[in-house]
Amino acid sequence: MKKKSTIITVIVMLLVGAAIVAAYFIVSARKNKENYEGGNRTEVDILLEKDLDKSYPLTSREVVKFYSRILKCYYNKKLTQEQLEDLLDQMRKLFDEEFLAENPRDSHLMELQEEISDFAARKCQITSYQVEQNGNIVTWTDEGKEYARVIASYTEKEDRHYLKVYEEFILRKDSGGKWKILGWYLTDADAMK
Question: How is domain 54-192 classified at the CATH fold level?
Answer without folding.
Answer: Nuclear Transport Factor 2; Chain: A, (3.10.450)
